[in-house]
Structure formats: structure tokens, C-alpha cells
Write a structure and sequence with these properties.
Blueprint lengths: L4 H10 L7 E4 L2 H11 L3 E5 L12 E4 L2 H11 L3 E2 L2 E2 L3 E4 L4 E12 L4 E7 L6 H7 L4 E6 L7 H11 L6 H13 L2 E12 L4 E3 L3 E4 L21 H7 L3 E4 L4 E5 L2 H13 L6 E4 L6 H12 L6 E8 L4 H15 L5 E7 L2 H11 L4 E4 L2 H17 L2
Parallel strand pairs: 14-16, 16-17, 17-18
Antiparallel strand pairs: 1-6, 2-3, 2-6, 4-5, 7-8, 7-10, 8-9, 10-11, 10-12, 13-15
Helix pairs in contact: 2-3, 5-6, 7-9, 9-10, 10-11
Length: 380
């Protein structure tokens, strides 16, 4: 689970990392009062679980409380990469002298953690990493040893960060360990005109497997944004967004993964992974289909279900329901096999939706879905 910036800020503060004074609100009038309490000038920041807020206009500097109110009014409700802004953080502005990038992230490839740091942090860090990788230091961190002063000094040296950042690097590692995080990132970590080191932004991804001992975030309401990831999370679906154009829905992680491979083998790219699980109900199928169809990148959808515990007629019932609820404008290819496949196919035949076609094999279904996606892409 990702935390909001203001939640990350709270954790940083608890671990002794310096953060600007700030408060969160969903009311422009309240934003004005907070700015006044902070001394007048304020930074108004969209609270959404995605990066690039600055470039999207979701971070604004206000010269006085009235401007803070105006900025909050502008930012609240804004759509940033499919995430609707429901709250803003009003922060005390900071005289930035230099911006750094620092993070610790679980690196599955190396089977450990890695510290990533750069003296050229800020909004263009992706570009820096892509065009001048030598400006970004990557130092493996032994999870058993952790980050103490000596390691932090090595990280700071490798990245060209000033020695004053060493303390923050040590504390940031403590945040990762104590909070069971897979990622802690500060971009920018800044040096102010007065020489203080301040975390101006924060991103934390918690390990969901450790939820049971991190109950404090457990009651969080599911996000209600429009992005397919958020819609899927709100409905408790096992969904992963990918970067292709064929939406994929199946039952069982193994079947869905092999469906992704078959789609790729047909020269198309899957737009997502969505496993509706064993024993999936009509409701789950309808929810899954509505999530996949809501993804603007999806050009066609492939539903591949092998009925075991799941009965294909329940799946077909869910598809029929979703067709009525979602009113799709994209073609669907459905392959039903196994338990109650005949009844499932008959249900879909009876519905005779113009955008739905059936296939009898997984390969045939994938080929057809790939072709439909390509046709839709070339048609614009
Ligand atoms: P992001 O674009 O989603 O990563 O949002 P950030 O919180 O990183 O804000 C974007 C940029 O706004 C930062 O890289 C800073 O350059 C700038 N910024 C944010 N807060 C302040 C501040 O208090 N003072 C100044 N001068 N710049 C700020
Ligand atoms: Mn940032």
C-alpha cells in the first residue's frame, strides 16, 4: 500500500527527519486559515498517490492566505494521472538552495535493498536517471546490517550529497525498517538557504504482508479515484496495470499469466493482469470487467475462464450484468471452458451483444482479441 505524502511526512517527523510545518484539508476556506497560521505564504499540494504532481499543476506556491485559498480551490477536484484530488496539504514554504534525491527500495533482482541517491533531485530526476545514469548512485544495502553512519557516509559520498544529509539517510533507513516499507523516497530532500536539510516530499510503500502489525493504516478507506488501479483496489480485485492494449481477465493466477504470454505471442501487449480467483461470482466478474473497460488504454478485452470451482454460467451471468451496467464500447472475446461451459456459452449467445464474441480455444481467443486491438489502434 502506498501512503499519501502527508502520511509519509508524519512518519518522517516521528523518526526525527525535518519536514516543513503543514496541515491537510479538503476545504479552500480552511486552506486560507492554515496559510495564515503558517505565516501567510504557503505551498499548496495535491494529496494523491502518484508522482509528478508538480508538473501537473498540483503544487502551487501562494504568496498570502487568499492565494492559498484560491490555489486550494483550483487543485481540489483536479485529475492527476487518473487520481482525483480529494485533499490538499498546506505547507510552510522553504527557501530551497539545492535539491537532492534519496530513496531505499527493495530490489528483487539483487535480493536485497538498494540506496539510490543523487545530488540532482527534483522534478526532473527521471530524466537525469535516463540521460546521465552516472549522476545517480546505487549502493546495495545489506538488510541485516542496515544503514548506520558509515554506510550513510558512503551513500552520500557516492552521490555527491553534503555531509549534513548523513543523519537523514540513517533515519530514513529506520523509517523503512520500523514501518515495514518496501520503498521510502524523498524527492526533493533539500538544503535550505539556512543550511538545514529538509524532506520536502515523501513517498512510502508499505509491505502489505506486514499489515497485521501496522494496524494504524488498516482502517484507511479505499481510494475512490478513477484510475483502474484504484477502482480495482476499492473492489478488492487482484489487478496489476500493464502497458499494453488487450485487457485480460481470467480465473487463477497461473491461467491469467499464461494468457498474458499467449496475448504477447500473438504480437499484442496485455493491458493488465486481473485474476478473478477460484469460485468467482457473477459480482466479481462484473466488477472486474467494469475496471478493465474503464482503462482508456484498453482496446479489446479477453476473458479466459476455465471453470473448476468457478462455474462458467456464473461468469457468463457476470459478463451479462456488466454489459448492462458498463455499456462497453470496446470488443470482448470470451473463452469459457470446463465446469458449466455449455450453459455459460448459451447465456452469452442469448444476450447476443454486438461487441461480444466467443472463442473455443485460448489461442484462438487471444489471436482474435489481439487482432481487434490492433484494428482499433489503427482506426485511431
Ligand atoms: P511531485 O512533483 O509530485 O514530486 O511533488 P513535490 O512535492 O516534489 O513538489 C514538486 C516541486 O515543488 C519540488 O521538486 C520543489 O521543487 C517544489 N517545492 C515543493 N515545496 C516547495 C517549497 O516549500 N519551496 C520551494 N521553493 N519549492 C517547493
Ligand atoms: Mn517529489
Amino acid at each position: 500500500m502506498d501512503l499519501y505524502e502527508h502520511q509519509a511526512r508524519e512518519l518522517f517527523a516521528e523518526h526525527g527527519i525535518v519536514v516543513p510545518r503543514a496541515e491537510v484539508t479538503d476545504s479552500p476556506q480552511r486552506a486560507r486559515e492554515i496559510a495564515r497560521a503558517l505565516g501567510g505564504r504557503a505551498v499548496v499540494k495535491a494529496q494523491v498517490k502518484t508522482g509528478g504532481r508538480g508538473k501537473a499543476g498540483g503544487v502551487r506556491l501562494a504568496a498570502d492566505p487568499a492565494e492559498a485559498e484560491e490555489a486550494a480551490r483550483h487543485i481540489l477536484g483536479m485529475d492527476i494521472k487518473g487520481h482525483t484530488v480529494g485533499a490538499v496539504m498546506i505547507a510552510e514554504p522553504c527557501a530551497v538552495e539545492q535539491e537532492f534525491y534519496v530513496s531505499y527500495i527493495l530490489d528483487r533482482a539483487c535480493g536485497g535493498f538498494v540506496a539510490i541517491a543523487s545530488a540532482e533531485g527534483g522534478m526532473d530526476i527521471e530524466e537525469v536517471a535516463a540521460t546521465r545514469p552516472e549522476a545517480v548512485a546505487r549502493i546495495p544495502v545489506d538488510p541485516a546490517a542496515g544503514v548506520h553512519t558509515a554506510t550513510a557516509v558512503r551513500i552520500a559520498d557516492a552521490a555527491g550529497l553534503p555531509p549534513q544529509t548523513v543523519d537523514t539517510l540513517v533515519r530514513l533507513w529506520k523509517v523503512l525498517v520500523r514501518e515495514d516499507a518496501l520503498l521510502v523516497e524523498v524527492n526533493p530532500l533539500v538544503r535550505t538557504a539556512e543550511g538545514r536539510i529538509v524532506a520536502l516530499d515523501g513517498k512510502i510503500t508499505l509491505d502489505d504482508n506486514a499489515r497485521f502489525r501496522q494496524s494504524r493504516w488498516g482502517e484507511e478507506k479505499p481510494a475512490s479515484g478513477d484510475a483502474p488501479e484504484e477502482r480495482a483496489a476499492a473492489k478488492g480485485l487482484n489487478y496489476v496495470k500493464l502497458d499494453g492494449e488487450v485487457g485480460v481477465i481470467g480465473n487463477g493466477a497461473g491461467l491469467v499469466m499464461s494468457t498474458l504470454d499467449v496475448v504477447a505471442g500473438c504480437g499484442a501487449r496485455p493491458a493488465n493482469f486481473l485474476d478473478i480467483g477460484g469460485g468467482a461470482s457473477a459480482r466479481v466478474m462484473a466488477d472486474g470487467l467494469s475496471v478493465v473497460l474503464s482503462d482508456p488504454d484498453v482496446k479489446s478485452v479477453l476473458v479466459n475462464v476455465f471453470g473448476g470451482i468457478t462455474a462458467c454460467d456464473a461468469v457468463a451471468d457476470g459478463i451479462v450484468r456488466a454489459l448492462d451496467e458498463v455499456r462497453p464500447t470496446k470488443p470482448l472475446v470470451v473463452r469459457l471452458d470446463g465446469n458449466s461451459a455449455d450453459r455459460g456459452r448459451a447465456l452469452l449467445d442469448a444476450r447476443a451483444h454486438p461487441l461480444v464474441e466467443q472463442a473455443t480455444t485460448m489461442d484462438g481467443a487471444a489471436r482474435r482479441a489481439a487482432r481487434l486491438a490492433t484494428a482499433a489502434a489503427t482506426a485511431g
